[in-house]
């Protein structure tokens, strides 16, 4: 079975950087898109970034565009979220996710992703 394991969360000061990693094990050949979502207390889970597994096309939420970069290493079944210029508003639990081939709805919808990690906390102090 597929498992996703996140790492790299922590406490940083505003303006600092963090690099999140998501390592997938098991059957990954049906992955079409992988990405990151986040959820702050009292808020809905929101889309952060996504990348297509084969082509490497990237997609970002407006709130992080220009500050965050998503990438993937197919040989390692791993994808990353490089977060720069972090702001207190970025504080949230971050979840990596994978969407299967054959799904053509919006990449912004969390419900369209099949596999999820357990989450890693990112806290940005002011």
Task: Give the key terms.
single chain; 126 residues; mainly beta; seven-stranded mixed sheet; four-stranded antiparallel sheet
Question: Could you spell the SSE succession in H and E letters?
Answer: EEEEEEEEEEE
Kindly state the number of beta strands: 11
Q: Please summarize the sheet with the most strands.
A: 7 strands, mixed
The backbone outline, from C-alpha atoms, is globular
Question: Number of DSSP helices?
Answer: 0
- Indicate the structural class: mainly beta
Average of per-residue pLDDT values? 96
What radius of gyration results from the CA coordinates? 14 Å
Residue share in helix:
under 10%
Share in β-strands:
over 45%
The end-to-end distance, rounded to whole angstroms, is 40 Å
Low-pLDDT stretches are none
Write a brief structural summary.
The protein is mostly beta strands and about 130 residues long. About 0% of the residues lie in helices and about 50% in strands.
């Amino acid at each position: 079975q597929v498992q996703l394991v996140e790492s790299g969360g922590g406490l940083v000061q505003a303006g600092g950087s963090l690099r999140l990693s998501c390592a997938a094990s098991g059957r990954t050949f049906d992955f079409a898109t992988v990405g990151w979502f986040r959820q702050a207390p009292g808020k809905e889970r929101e889309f952060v970034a996504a990348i297509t597994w084969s082509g490497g096309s990237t997609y970002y939420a407006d709130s992080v565009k220009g500050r965050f970069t998503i990438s993937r290493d197919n040989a390692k079944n791993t994808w990353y979220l490089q977060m720069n210029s972090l702001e207190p508003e970025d504080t949230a639990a971050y979840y990596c996710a994978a969407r299967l081939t054959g799904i053509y709805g919006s990449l912004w919808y969390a419900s369209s992703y099949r596999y999820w990690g357990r989450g890693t906390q990112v806290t940005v102090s002011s």
